[in-house]
Amino acid sequence: MTLSMIVAMTRDGVIGRDNGMPWHLPADLAYFKQSTLGKPVVMGRNTHESIGRPLPGRRNVIVSRSLRDAPAGTELVPSPEAALALLADAEEIMVMGGGQLYGAFLPLAERLYITRIDAHIDGDTRFPAMNEQDWRLVSEQHRPADERNAYDCRFQVLERIK
């Protein structure tokens, strides 16, 4: 099993504001879909609520201590460890936020899919600090801003140096 995380962040590491994403980039949404389709996704309760529905074509696992029942089309676990146990047979697990889950899973992650948004955008949630020297860049694709995507961005895949 490969434990991966997928995140979009600004230059300053901002990943969210008011339990949502403070930008709308169709190119990033397409990258997210392409990267996660067919794989289990793990998210916190707030992330699930901000999306409002299970993501189709993926096994949806919510980590929450406060939810009593799993929303339709999802599976509910009480901890990051329980999510890993539930998905132990998966080829690749995609952690998709929010901030608390990124913090819990970053020390264990082997691969990062990062959309780096070339902008300063106000937010209240940041990606946890990481030592860039622990990671090597495997691939990178630049996506210039256009009429539908307000910001330049880079799609990067990083793998932990073992």
TrEMBL record:
Q: Which family does it belong to?
A: Belongs to the dihydrofolate reductase family.
- Top-level taxon in the UniProt lineage: Bacteria
- Tell me the protein's name: Dihydrofolate reductase
Q: Which organism is it from?
A: Oceanimonas doudoroffii
| UniProt keywords, alphabetically | NADP, One-carbon metabolism, Oxidoreductase
Biological process terms in GO annotation: dihydrofolate metabolic process; folic acid metabolic process; one-carbon metabolic process; tetrahydrofolate biosynthetic process
InterPro entries for this protein: DHFR, DHFR-like_dom_sf, DHFR_CS, DHFR_dom
A GO cellular component term found in this entry reads: cytosol
Q: What does this protein do?
A: Key enzyme in folate metabolism. Catalyzes an essential reaction for de novo glycine and purine synthesis, and for DNA precursor synthesis.
Q: Write out the pathway annotation from the protein's UniProt entry.
A: Cofactor biosynthesis; tetrahydrofolate biosynthesis; 5,6,7,8-tetrahydrofolate from 7,8-dihydrofolate: step 1/1
UniProt entry tagged with the keyword Lipoprotein:
no
Record-linked Pfam families: DHFR_1
Tell me which PROSITE patterns the record gives. DHFR_1, DHFR_2
Q: What class of enzyme is it?
A: oxidoreductase
- Its transmembrane ranges are none
Q: What reaction does this enzyme carry out catalytically?
A: (6S)-5,6,7,8-tetrahydrofolate + NADP(+) = 7,8-dihydrofolate + NADPH + H(+)
Looking at the record, the residues that make up the DHFR domain are 2-160
Enzyme Commission number: 1.5.1.3
| Molecular function, one GO term | NADP+ binding
